[in-house]
Structure formats: structure tokens, C-alpha cells
Design goal:
- By secondary structure, the chain is of the alpha/beta class.
- It has three domains: about 150 residues, no CATH class; about 100 residues, NAD(P)-binding Rossmann-like Domain (Rossmann fold), CATH 3.40.50.720; about 190 residues, no CATH class.
- The chain is about 50% helix and about 10% strand.
- A five-stranded parallel beta sheet has the order 3-2-1-4-5, with helices on both faces.
- α10 runs antiparallel to α11.
- The two termini are about 45 Å apart.
- The relative contact order is 0.07.
């Protein structure tokens, strides 16, 4: 029987072995492309072709450097989430750092004709960059598939009891069922008082209410407890935690929004009196705002040029399909709660909200035109917002802007909702690429928006953009 430690060790070994093989395959391919492929007619070799053996002796050293770089960036650490986009960014970070180190070392070598001191082709280095992505990312996906298969065969699973039956509990249960590498199995759920239960069939079996917690734990068969309802009062949570500690059961819980926001805080003193406050977000720093704005200008300008043919065809289709304008504008709330007009392509019949007033779009919305349904399904209707980004009303990535009608309502009903307006709104966002679009939980979206705000980086923005381009889930 495979134990957890054996499974992890085998999976890591498979990943490292595949990396070693594919790294050396990429090195050999780069050498061939530079010196023997048809590309030599475009980029001629001017100083003669170096012997292959002079490169072969360097392969082990280059392999070790890149493997260490991948390890440094967490490629071989156990992860709960394996998907192509995460692997792409892990490979990219490790590859760029490793290649910079290799280029620095080889460029400093003495210019002699000995096999040890030979100068390596700079062009072959640059050819190696896309080759590493081309070889390693599919290799990582194969390794991830092997790892999932090993975890499915593992019999040593942690038995989890989930307290709560709401949408958060359903979302976590669904994620556990789709990720065998978590090595968890859910033994059941406990219902909390005054909690709206999810309609998902995955919420099963329900073993009772929260008052039955001690009895369920006393029966054995539980290794871990997960509390998904952050609204329990302090005494109830402490009671659950005490029972878990007495039975040596691991305890985790979904934090409320205040806990998420205050995981990083600043302490200052006024005349010896300590004052605790929430730490400023990364995008409050002028240098980060400048970098993000420059990225938005360049990205939106390129996006407008590239999407111009698509927008032209979409505009023609809208005109032929239904009466009304091609584009429409709508008031939205952006940074600091200031209102601006967002631009989109019309996907609904004219005056769609004349009788209903402001309402969210939903799946199979009867107000959508035939062309509009297609545009929404492929997010083409959102492309005019690139103009909003170029103007400075929005950013490429950030919390999605809402209409003032909904903002006023959510501000009253959802604690700390206005915090998401501390930065510019985005064409796409971390909540949206994780499936939270349209008529979905506002609190869940806020949780994802806050995670983005606290962990912002340009690399994070790039990741969200790539996930948006290749997303398979859509709200409509």
C-alpha cells in the first residue's frame, strides 16, 4: 500500500527525472537549431561550428543550475493545485532565473579555444528559452498526471468532517473530489443554525447539527475538521477547537473578511502608545502604481490594435441581427467609488431593463440576442473596455466594476465591500478567472478580490490575463 510519504517521494522523483531528460533534450535541440538547421541561412554562423562535445560537457552543470532554480521557486514542493497555467508560470520563473545565472557565468568565461574556456553561442541561449517552455510544461503535465494517479491509488487518506452546508462548503467539497492529490475524503457535514444550505448534491451525508459535533467526533473516524461558516460566535468556535485538541484532530476554518484583511498589519507608536492598523496594499506604493499603469497602457494599446478586426465583424453582426446601437455605455463605480462610463458591445435587445430595472445577467438570459449570446459566451462584448483602460478609467486586471445601484446595496449588506474600490477596476479579475462571474456570491467574489489586492504583482496580472484567455468557464 502506498503511504503519503512514498507517494510524494515517487511523484517528486518522476518530476525531477522528466525535467533532467527534457532539459538535455532542449539543450541538444538548441545546438542543432543554431548550427545545423535551416535557420543558419537566416542567422549565419560566422566563427565556425563548435564541436558538440564542448557543449555536452556543459550540459550537466547547466542542468544542475536550472534544477536548483526550479526547486527555489517551488516546482518540486507539494502543491494542492496542479493546472497548466500554474505550471507555465512556475517553469517560467525558474527558467528565467536559471538562464540569467547561466548567461552570467558563460559570458565571464575566458575567450580561449580550449574545451573548458570556449565561448558559448548567445543566440543558442535565446533559442533555448522557448524550447524549455515547449519541452518542460508538457513534461510537468505528464508528471502531474502520474502524481494524481498515485494519489488515487493511495489508501491512506485523511478523513474530513465539514462544519457548514452553505455554498463555501459545497465549493470546497467539490474541489476535494476533483483533486485526489489532497488525499482527503469527506465523511460528512454538520449543519449550522440559521445557515442557508447549498442545493448542491455534493453536500451529503449530513450527520446532524453543530450540537452533535462532540458525538460525531467521539465515534472516531475523523482526522480533520473544517469550519466553513465564519459567523459562529467565539464560544462555539472555541468549543469546537477544544474538542479537536483533546482528540488530536487537525482543525482549519474559513476566515471572515476582517481576518483576511488584517493578516498583514503595521504597528506604529505615538508617544509610546502602540497603534495597530491595516498595512497599505502593494498598489498604494507609487512605484507599483506607475508600473501597473504603464503595463495597462501598453497592453490596452496592443489589445485595441489586435482586436480591431474582431470588433468590426462583431459590429456588423450586431447590426444585421437586431435593432439598436452597436455599443452601449453604462455607469459603473471604480476607484475611490467614483463613477465612470464603461463601454461594451450591445448583446441584449434595445431597452432591455425598461420594465425590470437594474438586474444581473444570467444563464440563457431571454433578453440576449442570438449574436449577443455568442459574444457573451466568448467575452467579445468586453473588448471595448480596452478603451476604458487606455483612458485610465480601468485597469486590465482588478476587481470588476459594479453599477451604482448594486454598489449601494452591497455596501449595506456586505461588510468591507467598499475596500475593493481602493484600486482601479479591471476588465478581468482573480474572482472571474476562478468562476465567480455574473449572478454568483458577492462575498466569495470579495474574498478573491481581497486576495488579489494583498498579493498583487505584475506576474500575478499576467497570470490572470493568461487564465482569462484560456478560461473554459463563463458566467453566461
Amino acid at each position: 500500500m502506498l503511504t503519503r510519504s512514498h507517494t510524494t517521494e515517487i511523484a517528486t522523483a518522476v518530476r525531477v527525472i522528466l525535467d533532467v531528460v527534457l532539459l538535455n533534450a532542449a539543450f541538444c535541440t538548441a545546438y542543432w537549431l543554431r548550427f545545423y538547421s535551416p535557420l543558419t541561412t537566416i542567422i549565419p554562423v560566422l566563427k565556425g561550428i563548435p564541436p558538440f562535445r564542448s557543449y555536452v560537457v556543459a550540459f550537466p552543470f547547466a542542468t544542475v543550475v536550472l534544477l536548483y532554480s526550479f526547486k527555489f521557486f517551488g516546482s518540486y514542493a507539494r502543491r494542492w493545485r496542479h493546472d497548466p497555467m500554474n505550471e507555465f508560470f512556475l517553469v517560467t520563473k525558474g527558467m528565467v532565473a536559471g538562464m540569467i545565472a547561466l548567461m552570467a557565468i558563460t559570458f565571464l568565461l575566458p575567450s580561449t579555444h580550449s574545451e573548458i574556456g570556449i565561448k558559448y553561442s548567445r543566440i543558442s541561449f535565446f533559442m533555448l528559452l522557448p524550447l524549455l517552455e515547449l519541452y518542460l510544461v508538457p513534461g510537468r503535465l505528464v508528471a502531474n498526471g502520474v502524481e494524481k494517479g498515485l494519489y488515487r491509488k493511495s489508501k491512506e487518506k485523511r478523513r474530513m468532517l465539514i462544519i457548514g452546508t452553505g455554498e463555501t462548503a459545497a465549493r470546497i467539497a467539490r474541489y476535494i473530489s476533483h483533486n485526489p492529490n489532497l488525499e482527503c475524503e469527506i465523511v460528512g457535514f454538520l449543519k449550522c443554525l440559521e445557515e442557508k444550505s447549498s442545493s448542491s448534491r455534493i453536500i451529503s451525508p449530513i450527520l446532524g447539527g453543530i450540537a452533535d459535533f462532540a458525538t460525531v467526533i467521539g465515534g472516531g473516524g475523523v482526522d480533520e475538521v473544517l469550519l466553513t461558516n465564519p459567523r459562529l460566535d467565539h464560544d462555539e468556535v472555541m468549543g469546537i477547537l477544544n474538542i479537536c485538541e483533546k482528540n488530536l484532530i487537525n482543525f482549519k476554518h474559513v476566515p471572515d473578511m476582517f481576518e483576511i484583511m488584517t493578516k498583514k498589519f503595521d504597528i506604529v507608536t505615538f508617544d509610546g502608545v502602540p497603534l495597530v492598523g491595516i498595512r497599505r496594499l502593494p498598489l498604494h506604493q507609487p512605484w507599483n502604481r506607475f508600473r501597473k499603469r504603464l503595463f495597462d497602457i501598453l497592453g490596452s494599446a496592443a489589445g485595441l490594435v489586435i482586436s480591431a478586426p474582431v470588433l468590426s465583424l462583431a459590429a456588423l453582426a450586431i447590426k444585421l441581427d437586431s435593432r439598436g446601437p452597436v455599443f452601449y455605455s453604462q455607469e459603473r463605480c471604480g476607484e475611490d467609488g467614483k463613477q465612470f462610463r464603461i463601454h461594451k458591445m450591445r448583446t441584449m435587445v434595445e431597452n432591455a431593463e425598461k420594465e425590470t430595472g437594474p438586474v444581473w445577467a444570467k444563464a440563457d438570459d431571454p433578453r440576449c440576442t442570438r449574436v449577443g449570446a455568442f459574444l457573451r459566451r466568448h467575452n467579445i462584448d468586453e473588448l471595448p473596455q480596452l478603451y476604458n483602460v487606455f483612458k485610465g478609467d480601468m485597469s486590465l486586471v482588478g476587481p470588476r466594476p459594479e453599477r451604482p445601484h448594486f454598489v449601494h446595496r452591497f455596501t449595506e449588506d456586505v461588510p468591507r465591500y467598499m475596500t475593493r474600490h481602493m484600486v482601479k477596476s479591471g476588465v478581468t479579475g482573480w474572482a472571474q478567472v476562478n468562476g465567480l462571474r455574473g449572478d454568483t456570491s458577492v462575498k466569495a467574489r470579495l474574498r478573491y478580490d481581497m486576495y488579489y489586492l494583498e498579493n498583487w504583482s505584475l506576474l500575478f496580472d499576467l497570470k490572470v490575463i493568461f487564465m482569462t484567455l484560456f478560461a473554459r468557464r463563463n458566467a453566461y
